[in-house]
């Protein structure tokens, strides 16, 4: 019989001798001591506010879930107006982990509706809508009307129309078909008074593409639907039930001409349409959501891994000693979780760089105005790069995070299936990230198209952007593929050095991109149009974008290692090497095909992964502690800081599910047990036969 060991003691021993300063790593992850202290103050504030109770969420009905979310709206709206923007952004990043459904409901107004105004309205229009209460949510609650029943990723194909009526100086917004019904519109079912509607601009019978219009949905006093507006509730979903998604149909709804957002395309009183010299600038505002989801992927993954790693440090089973073995001490469990820790650090640092690039881009675009020339050309080039990179990373990181959540859930064994342990709902809530703000496959293909186009431009002498410099090493002056310079190392240490892994991933990504280029050119050689040739090469483009995303994450990881404090550099270097090497082993065929690694070198990489998991295991709990989430944010009895998982799990389940009489015993169970059937009556079966 094994001797029992206290879960509290089990996790405490994990913290006795961390290999790095935990607090310093928290500061590095958060962006500094001040940022960490702000985060901690907000977490404490939420924890102490009864309005923000979250541990009973699994037991709420759909109606109760939505009502509780709505109670939080005013509180947060007032805070958003009275606190600095930095404070609000940090608060929302925490809420995205604590209550992702509410985060969506609140974000639909402030992120999407207000974001559409900020990105698409002229200064005068923006001032008008702000004065009407759009920013403060006083008099206006907004939603974002892009997706339709029949169209999602293909924004250019949206069917809703906004036709200019010169006689009345109005637009007539109309849903001409069933498939043009606006669908999945967050906030539409119960909350929104106005909607930023994406519709086809039609003037004098000519279509000018999809533009943005502000349409009032409900009377702000009576809350009755406006004439011509029909709205319905989409009901229960896989997750995020806090948001009241709905459908909207417009039947010849008239709005003033000034309600078309005209920062870019303008329609004059005469009906003259003035299109911008740089039409691509209109897409800058759409990047923000994708960038935020890269950060959200990292944040949600941090919570999932904190739960799984802490549980693995206290859960014991089997073993040949006096005490059962911790899950975390089994090599297979280390391989199960610790490469995911490395992936999460890679996402953290990629999100940091992506956010910085986006802010810099938007600053450049803001200064550009209607200017043309060299500066405008450079801005458009940066916009295309950021658009493609954000598309690829949004897809890559949300897929990666969803896998991390599920792997962590499965690592909890049967307890992972419980709604009270935190990861089942996390999976359901996060899954939508893979399809909204652009379907992941479509976004990955967009990134792949950019990579092919950039490689073709490089052949013509165009300079490569910084994150694609690895292509220059793979392309000769005439555009032909150079022979890859293979890895010369042979030991586990040599083949897994960071500089070697960077070169390895650059080689694989370049090989994949140039393979996509060849597929594209094959399509053209067969007489296909440019667009059809891109479709012909879609599988190769998808693969190229995925390989590029791995390379981008490793590049960003290495950059952050180089910038990190000396005390953190050893552990971050180890994690970066684990990320690069484990990912390479998972895609070993690509490295063999590119010629960078040989079969024996791949085996050496596997040896390094084994040893790296053993090393990272020593600091598994300190690393997840450094993520800096309180027990309130973790919201799982299995992920408690003090390790007291069984007592708290039992207490939570029994407190939320008290013993009660079975409500359907008399109506269903008793009749089942006491039912009789005359055909069943008869002599008892004799089993003892006498001779």
TrEMBL record:
Key word Nucleotide-binding present: no
Boundaries of every Acyl-CoA oxidase C-alpha1 domain copy: 283-452
Pfam families: ACOX, ACOX_C_alpha1, Acyl-CoA_dh_M, Acyl-CoA_ox_N
GO CC terms, sorted: peroxisome
Boundaries of every Acyl-CoA oxidase/dehydrogenase middle domain copy: 143-251
Cofactors named for this entry: FAD
One GO MF term: FAD binding
Active site, per annotation: 437 (proton acceptor)
Acyl-coenzyme A oxidase N-terminal domain: residues covered: 22-132
InterPro entries, A to Z: ACOX_C_alpha1, Acyl-CoA_ox_N, Acyl-CoA_Oxase/DH_mid-dom, Acyl-CoA_Oxase/DH_mid-dom_sf, Acyl-CoA_oxidase, Acyl-CoA_oxidase_C, AcylCo_DH-like_C, AcylCoA_DH/ox_N_sf
GO biological process: fatty acid beta-oxidation using acyl-CoA oxidase; lipid homeostasis
Pathway in which this enzyme or protein is active: Lipid metabolism; peroxisomal fatty acid beta-oxidation
Binding-site list for FAD: 147, 186
The entry's keywords: FAD, Fatty acid metabolism, Flavoprotein, Lipid metabolism, Oxidoreductase, Peroxisome
The reaction(s) this protein catalyses: a 2,3-saturated acyl-CoA + O2 = a (2E)-enoyl-CoA + H2O2
Domain Acyl-CoA oxidase C-terminal: 499-673
Family label: Belongs to the acyl-CoA oxidase family.
Subunit structure: Heteropentamer composed of five different subunits.
Protein's UniProt name: Acyl-coenzyme A oxidase
Organism this protein belongs to: Coemansia guatemalensis
